[in-house]
Amino acid sequence: MGKRILYIIIIVLISAFSSSKINAQQPSIYEIKRMPFNINGFNNISPVIVKDGIIFCSDRRFSVFQDRTSFDGRRLYNIYMAVRKDTSGFSKPIELNSERSNKFNNGPLCLEPDGTTVYFTSEVETGKMADNKKFKNHSGIFIAELKGLDLVSVRPFKYNDPQYDVGQPSISKDGKYIFFASDMPGGKGGSDLYYCELINGEWSAPVNLGTKVNSSATENYPYIHPSGRLYFTSDRPGGFGKLDVYYTYLTNGAWEDPVLLPEPINSASDDFAFVAEPDLQKGYFSSDRGREDDIYQFTSTIIRKASCDTLEENNYCYRFFEENAMKHDTMPFRYEWRFGDGKKGTGKVVEHCFAGPGTYTVQLDVVNLITKEVTYNEKSETIVVTDIEQPYISAPDRISTNQNISMNADSTNLPGWKISRYYWNFGDETVAVGKEVPKSYLKSGTYNIQLIVTAEPEPGAKSREACISKNIIVFPKP
Questions:
Q1: Do 3-21+315-385 and 30-300 come out as alike in CATH topology?
Q2: Contact 446, 472 (CB under 8 A)
Q3: Rounded to a whole number, what is the largest CA-CA distance in the chain?
Q4: CA distances from 392 to 18, 48, 304 (A)
Q5: How far apart are alpha carbons 285 and 270 in whole angstroms?
Q6: What value does the mean pLDDT of the chain take?
Q7: Tens of pLDDT along 153-208?
Q8: What is the pLDDT, as a whole number, of residue 299?
Q9: CB neighbours (10 Å) of residue 467?
Q10: Domain ranges in the chain?
Q11: Which residues lie across from 446 on neighbouring strands?
């Protein structure tokens, strides 16, 4: 409790208040660029991040003059690796070969945490039936060991079936779960997402992820991020275009409602096969927003400061007392206070809260209880009540999941600043720009909100910036 000594009247700051409006904008939180190893006229899809670069699938030519095609003339996909040369450049992609490379599609794929065991998608039937134009060959998952540039010891996943498709595998960071897409009987739509658990070295029976994730549309290209988020692709209604990227996550053993990723990752075109670095600041996805499927890199544009000042609540409440009255407790006087805002108080010690910032004249009248004589303005002092100089976050301390609230910076007090931008980082990988912004949280937890305020620079000076933070607790909706 801080104190201000004003001659005989001693004033102590003791409490808090605040409030206020303007519309928010949602800035783009991603920048994207087409990767240089794409080849015009060919499809490049399903990137996988590895230590040395990116592994992906492409139906590019087998050589400068020769396509790799199936018996019916379709170009075949195979697996390639582009080694990272520096922070932005990649070497010319190198093909990874297997016993299936010349006749069947290879990919999409994923790697086990050891980085040497590869799970990839390919056709199930390899005999004479595979060359019959009337035969529909289904895809399955195959397992191989990566030895240099070769995939060796190829073996089938135990749940492959010639009657339906199983493919597009993704393995969890701990290697205990494999996710994949399949149109096996009993699903919810065109294809659904499933998972198997590794138990005693064997994959358990496939489990459908349920109606929170799967829909009557098509769900495919699952990717389980190290954080536990499950990204996938769907053509369900409500997206930006045809195929769109969504993510979900487990809460208390149940999958949450999927969240649609924003533009420019999603677009009016097909956008699919999303993967990301562990910190989610960079990653890759596939899209046909050009003439064919290409791989794009995304980079997060989210601003988050390493540290910000913690929000201090503005305090408009004071304690007043008359110094002589405290020294001479037996004197027969009554002390009457006028606070300059139309309010009054009586006592040797009084507490009063002003409505807000302003200049107030506090006056003390003393009544002699024996003679009834009143001494007006025995003491008088002018008090200037001010807000703390800081950006200010007006928001509740606690809310429930999916509760719509408004956060505003109306009470920001930065004298002399010509503020050009209010930038909000909500601590959940979402941001907004504006003086007043709407917000809701999908998941319970404690989130650290940052409000970054930028001022237009004075002539010949640098722009100014201030950052304040506040925690908000989000609890599960009852």
A1: no
A2: yes
A3: 121
A4: 9, 43, 17
A5: 11
A6: 88
A7: 999 999 999 999 999 999 999 999 999 999 999 999 899 999 999 999 999 999 99
A8: 96
A9: 20
A10: 3-21+315-385, 30-300, 398-475
A11: 473
Provide the token pair at 127. 């005999």
Structure letter (DSSP) for residue 217: S
Strands (E), 53-175: 53-58, 78-83, 94-96, 109-111, 117-123, 139-147, 150-156, 166-171
Secondary structure (3-state) at 228 = coil
The CB density around residue 399, as the number of other CB atoms within 10 Å, is 20
Distance (Å, whole) CA 217 – CA 189: 5
In one-letter notation, the amino acid at residue 183 is D
Residues with Cβ within 8 Å of residue 167, at least 6 apart in sequence: 108, 121, 139, 140, 141, 180, 181, 182
CA–CA separation, 260 and 241 (whole Å): 12
Domain 398-475 architecture: Sandwich (2.60)
Pairing of β 436-439 and β 431-433: unpaired
Length of the chain: 478
Right CATH for 3-21+315-385 from 2.60.40.10, 3.30.450.20, 2.160.10.10, 3.90.1200.10: 2.60.40.10
The 10s digit of each residue's pLDDT in 214-233 is 999 999 999 999 999 999 99
Confidence of residue 101 (pLDDT cuts 50, 70, 90): confident
Domain 30-300 CATH assignment equals 3.30.1490.190? no
